[in-house]
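User: What would this chain look like folded?
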Amino acid sequence: MRESGMKVLLIDDHPLILAALQQVIQGMGRNVEVLGVSGARAARDALGGEGGGIDLILLDLRLGDADGYELLVELRATWPSTPVVVVSASD
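Assistant: Here's the prediction, encoded as structure tokens.
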């Protein structure tokens, strides 16, 4: 984590869940920045080649534009030092 705080990438295609989680996580402290995106393509754009300064990724497995499991594999392979937490209501 940088001195300036923690940058979290939240990936969820449901707008209400995305907004609610974003608000809860942002409320954890002034030093927490949350970037919410609705799909795999936007997540890749946010991360860029160097990871976009993201310290933590929160990933929903059910995404409209991609399979969450496949995206998880891609995230682990491309940005291995960035922790990924799966957040899902799926069994």
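The chain has a mean pLDDT of 89. If you want, I can go into more detail on any region.
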